[in-house]
C-alpha cells in the first residue's frame, strides 16, 4: 500500500524495512543490501553474480546489464523472468498490473493529512502549485485535479499573455530589449527575445524581473476569481 510518504522515506529507513522483510521470509537467507549510485549497480562488476531476476517490463534492463558485463570481461547473467500480478480492478486509464502508480493516482483528491495550520496563510481558497519538468505529467495531473473540482490556472498561458500587445509586460519588455524583438505586426518575437537573454544571466534576470511579477499578479487575480466562484 505505497503512498507518497513511503516513496520519499530516507534510505536508512527503507533499508531497515527491506532487512525486516528478508528476515521474515527466511532468517537463514544470506543477502547484501547495496546502495545504487548508478543505473547498473554491482550487477556489471561483481564476478560472483550468476542470476538476475527481472520482470517482463525490466527484461531490457537485464539485457543492458549483460551487455555491460561482456564489455567488462564478465560472463552474462542468467535472466530469470517473473510474471507481474494483474490488477482485476484496474480502471481504463490505469496500468493492467498491480502498480503503485495506479494507487497514487486513486489517492489524488484525497486529503492524506490535514493542511498545516499557518496563520500567515488564508484558510480559503486552498492553493496547490503543480510543477515539474517537460514530460513529467503536469497536464495529465492537472486534468485529473480539474475533474475532481479544482479551478485550474495555467501559468504557461499567462506567461504568453503578458507579452501580447496591450499586455501588462509588453511596453516594459520592448523598452528594455529594443524594437528589434518585434514582428511586423507589433507582436513580440519570442525566439528573437530568447536569443537575447538565454545564456546571459544578467539579461535573463532583467526579463524575469519584468515578467514574473506580472504573471504572479494575474495568478492572484484568478485565485480571487476562483474564490468568488466558490
UniProtKB/TrEMBL annotation:
Top-rank taxon: Eukaryota
Gene3D superfamilies noted in UniProt: HUPs, P-loop containing nucleotide triphosphate hydrolases
Keyword ATP-binding found: yes
One of the record's GO molecular function terms: ATP binding
Family annotation (SUPFAM superfamilies): P-loop containing nucleoside triphosphate hydrolases
A Gene Ontology BP annotation from the UniProt entry: coenzyme A biosynthetic process
Assigned keywords, A-Z: ATP-binding, Nucleotide-binding
PANTHER family named among the record's database cross-references: BIFUNCTIONAL COENZYME A SYNTHASE-RELATED, DEPHOSPHO-COA KINASE-RELATED
Protein name (record): COASY synthase
Taxonomic source organism: Crotophaga sulcirostris (Groove-billed ani)
Taxonomic path: Eukaryota, Metazoa, Chordata, Craniata, Vertebrata
Amino acid at each position: 500500500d505505497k503512498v507518497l510518504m513511503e516513496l520519499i522515506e530516507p534510505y536508512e529507513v527503507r533499508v531497515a524495512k527491506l532487512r525486516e522483510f528478508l528476515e521474515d521470509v527466511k532468517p537463514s537467507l544470506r543477502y547484501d543490501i547495496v546502495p545504487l549510485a548508478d543505473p547498473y549497480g554491482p550487477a556489471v562488476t561483481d564476478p560472483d553474480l550468476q542470476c538476475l531476476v527481472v520482470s517482463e517490463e525490466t527484461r531490457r534492463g537485464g539485457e543492458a546489464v549483460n551487455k555491460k558485463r561482456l564489455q567488462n570481461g564478465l560472463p552474462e547473467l542468467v535472466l530469470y523472468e517473473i510474471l507481474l500480478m494483474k490488477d482485476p480492478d484496474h480502471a481504463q486509464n490505469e496500468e493492467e498490473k498491480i502498480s503503485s502508480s495506479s494507487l497514487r493516482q486513486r489517492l489524488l483528491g484525497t486529503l492524506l493529512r490535514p493542511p498545516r495550520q499557518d496563520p500567515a496563510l488564508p484558510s480559503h481558497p486552498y492553493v496547490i502549485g503543480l510543477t515539474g519538468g517537460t514530460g513529467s505529467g503536469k497536464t495529465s495531473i492537472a486534468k485529473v485535479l480539474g475533474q475532481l473540482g479544482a479551478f485550474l490556472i495555467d501559468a504557461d498561458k499567462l506567461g504568453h499573455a503578458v507579452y501580447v500587445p496591450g499586455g501588462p509586460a509588453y511596453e516594459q519588455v520592448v523598452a528594455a530589449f529594443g524594437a528589434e524583438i518585434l514582428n511586423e505586426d507589433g507582436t513580440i518575437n519570442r525566439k528573437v527575445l530568447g536569443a537575447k537573454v538565454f545564456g546571459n544571466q544578467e539579461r535573463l534576470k532583467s526579463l524575469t524581473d519584468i515578467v514574473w511579477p506580472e504573471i504572479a499578479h494575474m495568478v492572484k487575480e484568478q485565485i480571487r476569481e476562483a474564490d468568488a466562484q466558490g
